[in-house]
Amino acid sequence: MALLDVNNLSISFGGLRAVDNFNISIEKGELYGLIGPNGAGKTTVFNLLTGVYKPNEGIIRLDGEDITRKSTIEINHAGIARTFQNIRLFKNMSVIDNVKVGLSEHFKYSALEGILHLGRFSKVEKEMDAEAMRLLKVFDLDAERDTLAANLPYGKQRKLEIARAMATGPKLLLLDEPAAGMNPNETKELMDTIALVRREFDMTILLIEHDMKLVSGICEKLTVLNFGRVLCQGETKEVLANPEVITAYLGE
Amino acid sequence: MSFLTYLINGLSLGSIYAIIALGYTMVYGIAKMLNFAHGDFIMVGCYIIFSVSAALSGNSVVGIIVAIILCTVLGVTTEFVAYRPLRGAASPLAVLITAIGVSYLLENIALLIYGADIKSFTSVVTWEGVSFAGGELKIQGVTIITILVSVVILIALQLFINKTKQGQAMLAASEDKGAAALMGINVNRTIALTFAIGSALAAVAGALLCSAYPSLSPYTGAMPGIKAFVAAVLGGIGSIPGAMIGGLVLGIVEILSKTYISSQLSDAIVFGILVVVLLVKPTGILGKQIQEKV
Amino acid sequence: MKNKITKNNLITYGIVLAFYIIVEILMMTGALSSHMKGLLVPMTYYAIIAVALNLCVGILGELSIGHCGFMCIGAFTSAFFSRATENSIPTVPRFIIAFIIGIAFAALFGFLIGIPVLRLKGDYLAIVTLAFGEIIKNVINSFYIGIDGKGLHFSMKDSMSLGMEADGDIIVNGAMGITGTPHNANFTIGVVVLLISLFVVQNLVNSRDGRAIMAIRDNYIAAEATGINITGYKMMAFTISAAIAGAAGVLFSHNITTLTASSQYFGYNASIMILVYVVLGGIGNIRGSVIAACVLYLLPELLRGLNTYRMLIYSIVLIVMMIVNWSPKIIEWRKRTFGRVSFRRAKEVA
C-alpha cells in the first residue's frame, strides 16, 4: 500500500478549477517531485494535502487513514510536515526553540508543571534539548543553537525549517520550493541535506521545485502539473523526455 | 411621535459619528494605524471656534473656517512630525503609542490654555428648527443641519475618491504603498492629503457635536473619537459607505438605548453591537475579507 | 542556555527584591513622605498588570486595549467578597480567598471573552478588547447588590428596587461602587504578588506551552503546520493574562476606600496607559515592563511640583522616545554612526 494515496482531488476558487482531478501515489521511502509552470497549482496541492484548503472532491489517504477533512493540526499529528515557499520560521525565537516547538507533540508535561517548573518539567526538557540537539547536528545547525532564527543566513533558515518539520516526526515531508532564492552553492548544499534526510530518517519526501537540475538530480518520480491538471506522471527520466512537458515549460 | 423624535436625534448623532468615522476610516485605510489622537482634533476644532467666536463677538462662521484650516494644518503637521518617521517601524505598536502621545499632548495643551472647567459652547446653528403635527414633533435646526452636512460630505468624498486623480491615488496607496509608488504616486503626499481631509472633517464634526451637546472640555473629543472608530470598524474599515452606515447605526442605537433601556448601559450596548457584528462578519459590515496567502 | 535563562529570571526577582528592601529601609528611617508611601501599592499593581499585558501583547502577540476591564472584575468580585464577609471571616484567610475569587473571576471572563475575541485579527481584535473593557465597566456601574437577613438582593435599576430589609447592607451601589472594603493590601503583599506573577509568566515563557504561544505569535500558519493547537494556546495565554490582571485588581480594591468602575481607573485610557508601560519597557520584555511601570508611574507623581506642565512634558517625552527608538531612519543612522552590523540578510523570496 502506498504511503500517500490521493484520488480525484479537486478544488475551485470562484469559477477557477485550481486543481482538477489530481491523483498521486507515493510509496514509502520515495523522493517524489511535483513540477509545473508558475500558477499550475502546485502549492495549492500542498495546501490541500495539509488541510489549509478543503477539497471540493477527492480523497487523501496517508498510510491508509483518510485525512481529507482533517484540520492542519490533525494532519500534522497524522504525519505530514511541510516547509513553505516563503520561509516561515519563528523568527524571534532561538534556533533550538524552533525545533523544540516541533517536538511539542512528543514530549509532554502539563501546563501546571510548565508554569511551576516542577514535576516532569526538568526531565522532559532535558530530553527535548537532547533530541533537538541531535536534529540540529544532522542539519549542521548545532553551533547556532542560541541564535535567533531571523539572524540565520538564508541557506540555514531553509535548513532550520526542514529540521523543525522533521521534529514533528512525520511520515511524509512536503518541501515547497526549497531551493527558491538560493545561489548554486546553497542549492548544492540543499541537495545534500535532502539526501541526508532520506538516509538519516528513512523519510518519504514530496517536493515542489522549479530548479530542473535539482529535480532531475534527486527525484525518482515526477508529476507534472499544468493548469491544475496532471500533465504527465512517472519515472523522472521518462517524464522529462515527454514532449508535452517540454512544450509546457518552454511555452511558459 | 416621541419615538420619531428620538430616532431623528439618533440619526443626527449618528451623522456626527459618521463624519468623524469618514476621516478615521480614510486615515486608517491608508496609514494602517489606529490614530488615537483623531478624537482630540475634534476638541481642538471646538476650542478654536469657541475662541474665535468669542473674539469676534459671536461670529461662528469665521470660527468654523479658521477651525477647519487650523485643524487641517495640525493634522498634516502631526502626520509629518510624529507619524511619518515611524512608517515602516518594526512594530505597528510604535506609531500607536506615538498617537497616544499626541492625544495626551493636545489634551494637555488645551488644559493649560483653557483649564479643566467645562465651557459652554454656543451653537453654530442659530436656526430654531421646524415643528410638525401641531408642535408634537419638533426637530431642532442643528439636527437637520447635521444630517444635511453629513450627506453632502459623503457625496463629496465619494466623488472625490472615484472621480479625481488624487482620490484614485489614495485608493491605490491604501491597497499597496509599494506598488503605488512604482506607479508614480507620491505616497507621502497622498497620506498627508488624507490626514488633511480627515482633520478638516474632525473640525466640522466638532462644530456640529458641540452645537448639539454644548459643553466643551479638553476631553470632549476622546469618547466620540473612539465611538467613531468603532463606527468605522463596524462598517468595515477603509469603506466610505461603511463608515456612514456604522456611524448612523451607532448613533441611533446609542440614543434609543439611552431612552428606552438605561443611560448607564447605553455605551455597553453600543460596544456590544460592535462585538456582535464582528463575530458575524470579522471585517465589518462592508469590509473586505482578506485571507493570508500560504 | 538553560542557565542563562535561569540567571535572567533571577536577575528580575533580584531587582524587585532589592527595590523592596531599599523602600523598606527608607520607610523605617522615615525618609518617605506619606504621599510617597501612598504610591507604593499602586506601583505594584500597575507593575503586575503590565506583566499581564505583556504576556498578551508581547508573548502572545495580540494587542489588547481593554485589560483594565479584567482588573476591574478582579477588583469588584474580591471587594464584594471581602465586604460581605468582613465580620464573619478573619482577615488573613479572607484576604487569601478574596485573591482566589478575584483571580478566578478575571480568568473566567478572560476565557469567555477570549472565545470571540481571539477569532479576530490585529486591530479588529484590539478594538473589540477595548469594547469589552468598556462593557465591563458600564455593566458593573449599573449593578446594585445588597445583603440582608433574607439573603442576596440584586438589581440593575437602583438601590431602592433592591427591596432591602432594615438591617440590610447595600454592598454594590451602582455608579457609587463599593465603599468600605477593608484595607488589607500593603506594599509587602503587593511585592509578593508581583513576584508570583513574574514567576508564573517567566516560567511559562520558558516552557513547552510558552514556546508554542510564541510560535503562534511569530507565524501562526507555520505553527499550525507544526501541529500547534492555535486556539487552545491563545486561550491559555489570554486567560492567564486576565487572571494576573485580576490579581492586580484585588490589590487595587483592597487599597482604596471607595471603589468605583470609573473611566479613570478602568476605562480604555487606563488600559492604554498600561500599554505605554509595556511598549516602553520593551514588547515581550517582562522585566522591562516592571521597570517601565514603576518609573512611568512614579515619574509624573514625582513631577507634581511642575504640576500643570508635567503631563505636557510626559507626552512630549513619550513622542520623542518612540520616534528615537523606533524610526527606521533613525535606527539606520544610529547603526551607521555606531557601526553595528546586522546579521540579517534581507532577501525577497517569491
Written description of the protein model:
The complex is a heterotrimer of chains A (252), B (294) and C (350). Chain A has helices spanning 42-49, 72-78, 95-103, 111-116, 121-138, 154-167, 184-201, 212-218, 236-241, 243-250; strands at 4-13, 16-26, 31-35, 57-62, 65-66, 80-82, 172-176, 204-208, 221-226, 229-235. Chain A has 252 residues and is an alpha/beta fold. In chain A, the strands form two sheets. Chain A has a six-stranded mixed sheet with strand order 6-7-8-3-9-10, sandwiched between helices. Chain B has helices spanning 2-31, 38-55, 60-83, 93-114, 141-163, 165-175, 177-182, 187-212, 222-235, 240-260, 266-280, and strands at 119-120, 129-132, 137-140, 215-216. With 294 residues, chain B is mainly alpha-helical. Chain B has a two-stranded antiparallel sheet. Chain B has a two-stranded antiparallel ribbon with strand order 2-3. Chain B contains eleven helices and four strands. In chain C, the strands form two sheets. Chain C has a three-stranded antiparallel sheet with strand order 2-1-3, covered by helices on one side. In chain C, strands 4-5 form a two-stranded antiparallel ribbon. The radius of gyration of chain C is 22 Å and the shape is globular. Chain C starts with a helix and ends in a 12-residue tail after the last helix. In chain C, 52% of the residues are buried. At the B-C interface, helix 4, helix 9 and helix 11 of B face helix 5, helix 11, helix 13 and helix 14 of C.
List keywords for this structure.
heterotrimer; A: 4-stranded antiparallel β-sheet; 24% strand; B: 294 residues; mainly alpha; 11 helices; globular
